Amino acid sequence: MNQLIETTVVLEIDGESVEVPQGETVLKAARALDIEIPVLCHDDRVEPAGCCRMCLVEVEGQRRLQPACTFKASPGMKVRTDTERVARHRRGLLSLYKADHRLDEAGKPVSRGVHDMLADHIATYGTGPELEPVNAPRVSREHDTNPYIQFDPDACVVCGLCVRYCDEVEAVSAITLLGRGSATTIGTADQRNLLDTSCELCGGCIAVCPTGAMTEKPSLALPTEQIVRSTCNFCGVGCQLDLHVAEVPVTIGAPASAKQTKRVTRVTSPEPGTTVNDGNLCIKGRFSYEFINHDERLKEPLIRGADGQLHPATWEQAIARVAEGLHGVKQRHGADALGFVSSSRCTGEENYLMQKLSRAAFGTNNCHQCAAT
Ligand code: SF4
Ligand code: SF4
Ligand code: FES
């Protein structure tokens, strides 16, 4: 017997009707209607956990408010995100988070120079009763000498998103929720230095952290004045990068005489779901950018002269010299005396051109690419 399989459900959110795939959450259904539901512990790349309670909404027939990030849409469901009960919940919850967060003199969450979703929510939804600040006994790893990742327990809301990202996206499980109750913190096995764990220093925990409790050590307190989209040049995948640029003194690898003051202050990924790397980066893409300002960086071709020294040259001169050398080898020893080795850091098009150069221009099949081994 043929059975009709229902693959979508229709529900109502704030009086508007929306059709979503079966199994979709209320949060995604609301987003389809451009209805904003605030979140802290949610990221589309990991399984929803429903632990921060920021996204609670009213669902008709449910006695309690329900987390939109985990609650599944069902046919005929009626959801409200805009009631006084929901607004009161948000204010009360934000009061609690604020009391457990390091504040500045104006009573706002301390700015760490990075995006702080908690501060945004407080500005948008307000807070309820002023609560006495809580001095949570969360510990950090002050002895952790890893060069890139800093954890500030006073800015952590223990949403666990960094831990879930590390588990589910990076598949590394280097960090964990450690301890119990108010002492729960983000730690490692035996509170080891991240360098002594399975951590790959991808920095994904920094990227997902909604409060900036996880931050980049090298760029702490450095500003962003401009963001420039670029393509990572460390391998051929083509990950997109957002280079944060600001006018700050060049310090690493630069000669004292360096006049250049604009530099990259941090690297982030574009939003998940918008580019090939889906919000993820590796250690090289995220942290290896000091070479940009290094005084020994090669910026132009060099040709070795009769004096044995390298001298600056134009690209035309350099390419002509290479062609002359390759033709000389072919004339003296035959085409198979040549070998062409390409790199996985090149694009597919560049690798294609390399084998074309080898086969069509010089007549040898001695061509290889490092990723082929
Ligand atoms: S840097 Fe990457 S691997 Fe290391 S703890 Fe963070 S998410 Fe896990
Ligand atoms: S460090 Fe950030 S992502 Fe991790 S639990 Fe704390 S607030 Fe959440
Ligand atoms: S975003 Fe839904 S509980 Fe955290």
UniProtKB/TrEMBL annotation:
Residues 147-177, 191-219 form the 4Fe-4S ferredoxin-type domain. It comes from the Bacteria. One of its GO terms (molecular function) is formate dehydrogenase (NAD+) activity. CDD domains: fer2. Residues 7-85 form the 2Fe-2S ferredoxin-type domain. Residues 225-296 form the 4Fe-4S Mo/W bis-MGD-type domain. PROSITE patterns: 2FE2S_FER_2, 4FE4S_FER_1, 4FE4S_FER_2, 4FE4S_MOW_BIS_MGD, MOLYBDOPTERIN_PROK_1. One of its GO terms (biological process) is respiratory electron transport chain. GO terms for cellular component: membrane. Keywords: 4Fe-4S, Iron, Iron-sulfur, Metal-binding, Oxidoreductase, Repeat. InterPro entries: 2Fe-2S_ferredoxin-like_sf, 2Fe-2S_ferredoxin-type, 4Fe4S_Fe-S-bd, 4Fe4S_Fe_S_CS, Mopterin_OxRdtase, Mopterin_OxRdtase_4Fe-4S_dom, MopterinOxRdtase_cofactor_BS, NADH_UbQ_OxRdtase_ferredoxin. Pfam families: Fer2_4, Fer4_Nqo3, Molybdop_Fe4S4, Molybdopterin. It is an enzyme of class 1 (oxidoreductase). Its EC number is 1.17.1.9. PANTHER family: FORMATE DEHYDROGENASE H (PTHR43105:SF14), RESPIRATORY NITRATE REDUCTASE (PTHR43105). This is Putative formate dehydrogenase. It comes from Enhygromyxa salina.
